[in-house]
């Protein structure tokens, strides 16, 4: 007990037919998810990250019951998603940033009315949830607008509200901030933080934006080539990846490279601007203080490494042992057709 989401050596294999020549075809077997095990406790907010094609969306689709695992055991709230997809649907909410669950040609409010009926949400609860979500996500002026006329950020907020009308215990978010501007991203993050804190909603979040994870998730799981390669705190991920952040400083004038102590080094100089790399696990404060004391500092900013860079570094520092050779795409013997 205790685990709300439970995966035990879950696999998903796709057979993809590929044309390899005139009248020649080959079946390639893609191991999109390769023996993944993890558990998520009720109320946790977990980041699920990894490079393109790593298997994140495939995992989420299995957790909703859209896809059936090829192997292993999977439970959400004690339910086997692919066998009891409808029963599970009442307890989970899903947002796929890349596509909408809303009715394209209908005003936003009509989609919500349809969901009210589809999920058989009691009237009072529906009204209460709708009012709350409209307020928190700033949807008031948008309810009568057809979904196709909404901007990406407006539509995403509309989708998040749709996923929560029926009070799901867990929310899967597959890139909910993709393509959003800084203000909309901040708004979505703020909302998710409140949802998790006030309602105890369990959240599984997939994103390519490291700031989503930094601001929301105390735990992060990294998947690469269908395998779970890291599960722990974000700080630990930086350490495992030997990640570095960059301090960008503007000096009053052009000067030789700053001497900033043992852990920081200048990686670029352009006129009065200098870039210093320092370990991501360290605070920037002492470094800034040292520079400010000895140099004519005008302005500064800290740049985070992007997720792909951190993961790439982590994978290379682990060596190739973790990556199954010759890769998970294999030609299925005897499956050639002509
Ligand atoms: N329906 C499908 N049929 C065949 N192959 C698929 C199918 N869905 C996914 N794949 C393959 O499975 C692998 C994992 O895909 P998935 O969409 O889960 O990646 P992802 O981690 O979500 O990547 P991204 O960051 O690009 O969204 C990829 O190699 C992809 O081509
Ligand atoms: Mg994806």
Automatic annotation (TrEMBL):
The keyword ATP-binding applies. SUPFAM superfamilies: P-loop containing nucleoside triphosphate hydrolases. Keywords: Antibiotic resistance, ATP-binding, Nucleotide-binding, Transport. Pfam families: ABC_tran (PF00005). GO terms for cellular component: plasma membrane. Residues 11-250 form the ABC transporter domain. One of its GO terms (biological process) is response to antibiotic. It is a peripheral membrane protein. It is found in: Cell membrane. InterPro entries: AAA+_ATPase (IPR003593), ABC_transporter-like_ATP-bd (IPR003439), ABC_transporter_ATP-binding (IPR050763), P-loop_NTPase (IPR027417). This is ABC transporter ATP-binding protein. It comes from Streptomyces phaeofaciens.
């Amino acid at each position: 007990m205790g685990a709300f989401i439970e995966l035990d050596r879950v696999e998903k294999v796709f057979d993809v037919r590929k044309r390899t020549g005139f009248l020649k075809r080959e079946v390639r077997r893609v191991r999109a998810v390769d023996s993944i095990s993890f558990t998520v406790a009720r109320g946790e907010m977990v980041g699920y990250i990894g490079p393109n094609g790593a298997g994140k969306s495939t995992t989420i689709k299995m957790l909703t019951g859209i896809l059936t695992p090829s192997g292993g055991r999977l439970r959400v709230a004690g339910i086997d998603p692919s066998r009891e997809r409808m029963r599970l649907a009442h307890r989970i909410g899903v947002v796929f940033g890349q596509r909408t669950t809303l009715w394209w040609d209908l005003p936003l409010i009509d989609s919500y009315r349809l969901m009210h009926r589809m999920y058989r949400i009691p009237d009072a609860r529906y009204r209460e949830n709708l009012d709350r979500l409209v307020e928190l996500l700033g949807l008031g002026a948008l309810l009568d607008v057809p979904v196709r006329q909404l901007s990406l950020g407006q539509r995403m907020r509309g989708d998040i509200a749709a996923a929560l009308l029926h009070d799901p215990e867990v929310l899967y978010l597959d890139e909910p901030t993709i393509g959003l501007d800084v203000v909309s991203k901040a708004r979505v993050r703020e909302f998710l933080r409140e949802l998790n804190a006030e309602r105890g909603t369990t959240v599984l979040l997939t994103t390519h934006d490291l700031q989503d994870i930094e601001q929301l998730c105390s735990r992060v799981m990294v998947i690469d080539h269908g395998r779970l390669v890291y599960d722990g705190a974000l700080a630990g991920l930086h350490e495992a990846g030997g990640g570095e952040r960059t301090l960008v400083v503007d000096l009053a004038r052009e000067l030789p490279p700053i001497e900033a102590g043992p852990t920081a080094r200048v990686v670029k100089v352009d006129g009065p601007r200098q870039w210093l790399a320092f370990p991501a696990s360290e605070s920037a404060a002492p470094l800034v203080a040292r520079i400010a004391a000895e140099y004519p500092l005008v302005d500064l900013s800290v740049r985070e490494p992007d997720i792909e860079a951190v993961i790439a570094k982590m994978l290379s520092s682990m060596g190739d042992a973790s990556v199954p050779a010759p890769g998970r795409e294999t030609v299925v013997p005897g499956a050639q057709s002509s």
